Amino acid sequence: MATYPFEPYAELPTLQSAVTDSFCQLVEQTLASQDTFSVSLSGGSTPKRVYEMLASRDLPWDRIHLFWGDERNVPHDHADSNYRMVKTALLDHVAIKEANVHPVPVAVDSPAEGARAYAQEIEAFFGTAMPTFDLVLLGMGDDAHTASLFPGTKAISESDASFVENYVPKFEAHRYTMTYPAITSGKEIWFIITGAAKVDALKAVVFGERDLNQYPSQGIKPTRWFVDSEAVG
Ligand code: 6PG
Q: For the whole model, what pTM was predicted?
């Protein structure tokens, strides 16, 4: 029988503590040899707890730059906003300068423009069109989407831009998402997958025949997996 390329965590809180500790260690290691640490954040419920835990850690926030791997097409104060989620969980509780926080400039009526502006902001920060984040945090949905690369959507085949808007038919709504080339250039890519709803998707992603259009998460080659036993089934 094929085996997963990782050891699952028995309990969700243990996994969340492990991500938090690993994040702090990576920041320390990285900042020993460079000035800033850049991270692309994930939405979702599991990372939210990690952000809350990071809020009470002693981190050099003036040297950490936060970007968003995906966003919903809603104003920043909307309940569905990934920016708002991170603000409530983390930003409101730590001394981080506005210049270090890079939310997606959501443009509800013209998401393509908002996405282009973000791609430019990313380029301005990294000095190249394709970013090399020190860390990319990702989750996976029960339909095998990651970031806002949903099955059957056009962003899956984007090979030029780092960040695009993406119409998602099942929500009849636009999302914003980092693209494969931007994600896979990350120096560290951590895939956080938890909960019983993910069992079938995870199996298909790891063991199924390659079909990015159906299982977008197959396009991610994580440097670390953080998976709980429920997601393994
Ligand atoms: C989002 C995400 C998305 C998320 C998965 C998993 O904004 O919705 O970035 O890709 O990571 O849907 O979410 P959970 O951790 O809540 O299962």
A: 0.97
